[in-house]
Amino acid sequence: MKYMHLIWASLFRRKTRTVLTLVSIVAAFLLFGLLDAVRTSFNQAGQSANGAQRLQTGAKLSFIQPLPQSLGAQIAQVAGVKMVTYANWFGGAYQDPHNQVFSFAVPPNYLDAFPEVEVSGGERKAFEEKRTGALVGEQLAQRFKWKVGDRVPLQSTIFPDQQGSKNWSFDIVGIMRAKDKKTSGFWDQLFLLHWKYFDETTPYNRGQVGWYVTRVNDVNQADRVAKAIDALSVNSDHETRTQTEQAATASWMKQLADIGLIVGSIMGAVFFTLLLLSGNTMMQAVRERTSEIAVLKTIGFSNRGVMAMVLAESLLLLLLGGILGLALATTLIPIVAGASGGMLNLPVLGADSWALGIVLMALIGTLVGALPALSAMRLNIVDALAGR
Amino acid sequence: MGKFIEVRDVSKVYERGKQKVEVLHHVDLDVEQGDFLALMGPSGSGKTTLLNMIGGLDRPTAGSISVGGQRIDQLGASLLATWRAAKVGFVFQLYNLMPMLTAQRNVELPLLLTKLSSAERRKRASIALQLVGLADRAGHKPGELSGGQQQRTSIARSIVSDPMLLVCDEPTGDLDRQSAEEVLGLLRALNADHGKTIVMVTHDPKAAEYAKRTLHLEKGTLVERAVA
């Protein structure tokens, strides 16, 4: 620590240049923090203790291919199955096609498979009794200022009614609340409508379901049960693939977009640019301090000592900018999530993200400082003092 | 008094591309402890090269150099750095202070290599600045000091770790006459009152008058000995 003032003073010898470089580093790590939150949000989808007890069964060929409703009764007979339910993707949008609403058509027992969702008994009963009834997530209701008793229009992006219109109307009968917002925040965004109403109204669907959700008695038997369910449809025209909820969600997300690859590619490009930028700053900083480094060596600083000081300077630059960037991301994430009206369910930056960020700072700092540190170490005192 | 510095049959050859330039030819030199030696000579005569080798900044191509009984030409880079930190103080023509540090922090620099506490480092740097008459300029950065004050700060830095040997390369080369005389008077006091052995390279005969003796180098050879 006794060299800290020297390292700090060297770093800010050219204040403007250092501050501009710091701003670039802050921006890079702010972006890292935000994108890592998006990646974590996608990775966490489907991860919960309740989720571990659920299996999802979809068509083996593609998740958009429907399955026969009759399969449900067969699944219910498989040993180890506690209950089975199903759902169809509705693909609703409210007022504007950009206002996409996660909307599923489900049977009355659907919520039995999801004890992490809270709906009052009266509202649940109202949903079961009203054909055009709908249950909406708490944040979704807040976003569009909906309340129980409202009649709301939704436009399906896929399914028309019998007259060919894709405009549907639903009566809001209840509000769904996720008990644990961290793992089940998705439910606060969901819109559930009656499967029977959906099935009878659209000519595109006749006794078919999008996917089955099965609750198992014993988590340890989940693999066996999944294989047994898939065995029911072997060699049929509707072969199935059954996965745990987490695997199914990940697979579904991956069919939409490989978030990990997208985030990784963007961050790769950002950090590569940062490497060149801060590398150039450090090279310039050391080059213009040649005589000062020579003086340090003259008065007794060893080659390794000088090398360590230049490396420390580079690490300090990255750590300063990086920690500021991640702190800014930590502050901004709840604001961005709030401003999105619940569309983005971004988790707070966790210890894992901070640890990864700090490892990246150390790695980039070392790479950036390596060349100037080596040239400082190899600097010949006599030549440097003579200005050669 | 015994020989403090012994330079024996020292030659130095620099390679500039394919060309070899012999800067020093078989130089022999003895300096006693407490001496104040001025090295004079025209540009390119090898005086700075000889000074650099006595200060452990450069190595001879042939011959040997002992300082205080230590064969410094045989020390590795790391040991030589440690030796310089403990035994030698350096004063340069262009002061070579760190522009971003205050005078106090500049003077403290050599003490960072010791195990002294922060308070002790500050105390010793203050004493050194007091000795060169700059106690009231401790918080100023080099850019806020005159040339003479910067050189005195540089001298304070050279003596703060109490080395026995001071090597000075044109210490007054960049100063006006009055500042030069102040600096030279300071060097003479350090020699006379504190027993520092000083080897000083200079072009200026008036500066050389402050030394106890003067030697001349021409084309890499010591050509004259004179007692001042």
Please explain how this structure is put together.
The complex is a heterodimer of chains A (388) and B (228). Chain A is α+β, with helices and mostly antiparallel strands. Chain A folds into two domains: 4-45 and 259-385, no CATH class; 66-237, no CATH class. Helix content of chain A is 52%, strand content 18%. Chain A is built from 14 helices and 13 strands. Chain A has a six-stranded mixed barrel with strand order 4-5-10-7-9-8. In chain A, strands 2-11 form a two-stranded antiparallel ribbon. Chain A is elongated. In chain B, the strands form two sheets. A six-stranded mixed β-sheet of chain B has the order 6-7-8-3-9-10. In chain B, strands 2-1-4-5 form a four-stranded antiparallel β-sheet, with helices on one face. Chain B is α/β, with parallel strands linked by helices and 228 residues long. Chain B has a single domain, classed as Rossmann fold, CATH 3.40.50. At the A-B interface, helix 1, helix 11, helix 12 and helix 14 of A face helix 2 of B.
Which helices and strands occur, and which strands form pairs?
The complex is a heterodimer of chains A (388) and B (228).
Chain A: H1 4-11, H2 15-44, E1 54-59, E2 67-68, H3 71-76, E3 81-89, E4 92-93, E5 100-106, E6 117-118, H4 121-129, E7 133-137, H5 138-144, E8 151-156, E9 167-178, H6 181-184, E10 190-194, H7 195-201, E11 208-209, E12 211-216, H8 222-231, E13 240-244, H9 245-256, H10 259-287, H11 290-298, H12 303-339, H13 351-378, H14 381-385
Parallel strand pairs in A: 5-10, 7-9
Antiparallel strand pairs in A: 1-12, 1-13, 2-11, 3-5, 3-12, 4-5, 4-8, 6-9, 7-10, 8-9
Chain B: E1 3-16, E2 19-32, E3 36-40, H1 47-54, E4 62-67, E5 70-71, H2 77-87, E6 88-91, H3 103-108, H4 118-131, H5 147-159, E7 165-169, H6 177-194, E8 197-201, H7 205-208, E9 213-218, E10 221-227
Parallel strand pairs in B: 3-8, 3-9, 6-7, 7-8
Antiparallel strand pairs in B: 1-2, 1-4, 4-5, 9-10
Helix pairs in contact in B: 4-5, 5-6
